[in-house]
Model the fold of this input.
Amino acid sequence: MLNKVMLIGYVGADSEMKFTAAGIPVANFSLGVKEVYKNGDGEKKTNTLWIHCVAWRRWAEIVGEHVSKGKFLYVEGRLQLRVYEDREGQKRNVTEVVVTTLRFLGSAKNGNGAKTAESSNAAAPADEADNPFNEAGSETADLDVPF
Done:
């Protein structure tokens, strides 16, 4: 089976970096991806889809340092469903992209030039062994998958 996502878009807000209890860096950001199409009347319409992205370890450090509002990015990763309980005790599902590759493209939409955070030796794909959402006992492991 294949679970791979490739996106190109603009960052909607500055990234947020935190550390797990084990000291593993994790960073979050939202990527706006535009879709342009013509409706039934032939009018050109634009729709922006906001995608929640999460990066772990070295990618999280890069995201925390270089990813800010308006940056133009290529993001590659996999989809992940995360279940959590909100402040009111309601279970919530979040679909997000776990970043495995990140490239800075062109200049930022806000006029700030994009800094390249990568060298000629690109970082290796993320090792997600310590991702707490991959544990066998996590709530997503129990989901009944129809295939």
Q: What stands out?
A: Residues 57-66 form the longest helix (10 residues). DSSP finds one helix and six strands in the chain.
